[in-house]
Amino acid sequence: MGSAGHPKSRREAAFSADKSLFLSAQTILERHEEKRLECIKRTSEVKWPNGYHCERCGGADYNQMADAPHVAQCKSCGHFEFITGEDWVESQVHGQKNLAGINIDTPWGFSATVPARRVRFDAHRAFAYDNGLEDIKLIFALRKFLETCGSYALYVGTEFFSYFHKHAPESVAGAACLIVDQDSDFDNYDGYRVVSPKDIPVDVEAIFLCETLTYNRQMMRQRLGMSTPAACPDVLAEIARDLIPPNSWTFAEATIYPIQLNDIEIEPGIEMLLLDTPGKMLAGMPIGIGYVHKALAKTNVKFQTLDVDNIAYHRYQMYRMFDSKGPVLAPNGFEMPVEPWHSANERMWVDPGAVEFFRPELDALIAAIDKARPKIVGLSVHQLNVEFSLKLVKEIKKIAPETIILVGGFAANNPDAGPRTFPLFDYMVINEADDTVGPLVEKLVAGERPK
Question: CB neighbours of 185 closer than 8 A, spacing ≥ 6?
């Protein structure tokens, strides 16, 4: 391959581009630079009506970055904060105060009013991961942003960190440290200063999340502490708006998302783990597992009830709304419905390929079980979660064959059909478990093996 096709050559070509590409390109809504600066000025007056106030230290003065006038840097602590952010801001130049419409002055000498609709930027959609020039320009913009951050730490994410490292190794090498989750292998980052999210050095002035997936970034912020300021690739909407691919902007749906979710974690020292796994039987509430939970609460067994189905539901919807670059596809190419948990989509849950879409939840659950090693794993099984549950039990028996698999639920409603529907069990509770599951679990935990 010639030098022109080499990633380094493409990177150098992008890095040598005129800096004006990033912030001064004229658009229909921002025909003149002075209008854009006026827009920013008006927004700052709305955001800080009583004068600037740093959200971190309370400082009363800031520097406005020459290369990124949308960004304010506190003179006291160096904290970065965005002045703009709402999509209605651009229309302030034209005196438009709401989202009913935006007045556009066209280059052809006439004006028009078009309906406005709230949009949002999605960093995950912005990158094609094809090593192309467009991606490299965006990475260069992030590299220039990090150069203004003083002493910064990079929180290692998934695919994006590797991609960023490939095209901006200088930025990774220049980091004060890499933040890596405690369950990761620190040896993979030999040669770098590696810390956990709870052990950030005091000399770090800024944290950058090397991740584009919404859910993953949210979990990063939770591990850091939600009050810890951290930038992420979403900063591109402020510093390199004119380089962003059009498909990176999506209409903002009126939903509850994104919401705060818990990691799939198992309490240390538990004796039994009670699970509700994806999906949902007739879109109903998991009442049966609630009765089992109540029965176990009357025993002396240390147990935990974990609704993995609920976690998987919210993760799926956050991915669909914020990160999917088109129709959501399972690994086998199956097009996932907008609402897999709707009763109209029950057939999806018996398709092994479609269920494989939830492999991240399955792997996280297996890793948590491997770490906690409960004596018993209890499953409430029905027609729509059999496929996921069978995959789970197979993996559990590989890593911890001594684990007792206790099964109940709608699929275990008679002694003939139950074992055929779900053959991978050590004990199966037939029909209602309220009166039998407590005494059975107590005996199993004590080492007895009833016949």
Answer: none
